[in-house]
Amino acid sequence: MVNLGNSWDALLREEFEQEYYLRLRSILKQEYSTHRVYPDMHDIFNALRYTPYESVKAVILGQDPYHGPNQAHGLCFSVKKGVVPPPSLKNIFQEIQAELGIAPPDHGQLTDWAEQGVLMLNTTLTVREHQPLSHKGLGWEIFTDKVISLLNERETPMVFLLWGAPARKKKELITNPNHLVLTAAHPSPLSAYQGFFGCGHFKTCNDFLQSKGISPINWALQP
Fold first, then answer.
1. Do 221 and 106 touch, CB atoms closer than 8 A?
2. Helices (H), the chain
């Protein structure tokens, strides 16, 4: 079964034994053997591997992984070094520059954020090549809802950044008043000008963390 190598293992052990997850696992075995599916099967749970439960300071919620070759590697919006940042990620960097004066980096690998406590989670963790939302409804949403619910239970404050309608629907899972929920349009070029640009989320996130005595996120990426 899945081995995440940190505190998520104990928290999610029963989830990995649920009937829906075993069914999902069976479907994925078939999908990976008959179609090109992203990310690589060893990268599916990278968001949880990079950011243990107790380390989470902020959650950025994406939809499903990038569906082009060599892009997705298990962190929402992130691409490995050497891969041109997709338009949504470029818009994220543009907003960070507008808010904090941080120039866009020369790559789009967001592991720096994940290692600082930003859980880079998609609501669906796999996708067929060139078929966005192709794994929607297979069971991933039940699993990622569980992850969000577990985070909601944590007493230490954190920030949830929910961009776009699918992410904003998760707001109902976040009932703990200790946490801050920020919503905006999706950073996609189709919607970025409808409320993502100018949202102020990156500065607001850090201001909130600091107000709770928690070290802020350095949104600048290392070369």
1. no
2. 8-12, 19-34, 46-50, 87-100, 111-116, 140-153, 165-168, 201-211
CA dist., res. 158 & res. 146, Å (int): 17
In this prediction, the residues of the chain whose per-residue pLDDT falls under 50 are none
User: What per-residue confidence (pLDDT) applies to 135?
Assistant: 97
Comparing CA positions, the residue from 155, 132, 8, 139 lying closest to residue 62 is 132
Q: What is the pLDDT of residues 149-207, one digit of tens each?
A: 999 999 999 999 999 988 999 999 999 999 999 999 999 999 999 999 999 999 999 99
| Cα separation, 182 vs 139, whole angstroms | 26
Biggest CA–CA distance in the chain, Å, is: 50
Terminal CA-CA length for the chain: 35
Catalytic residue among 64, 106, 145, 207: 64
145 among known catalytic residues: no
Instruction: Name the pTM for this structure.
Output: 0.96
> Count of residues for the chain?
223
> Which amino acid type is present at position 205?
C
- The residue with tokens 């904090």 is 100
| Residue of 137, 121, 132 lying closest to 8 (CA atoms) | 121
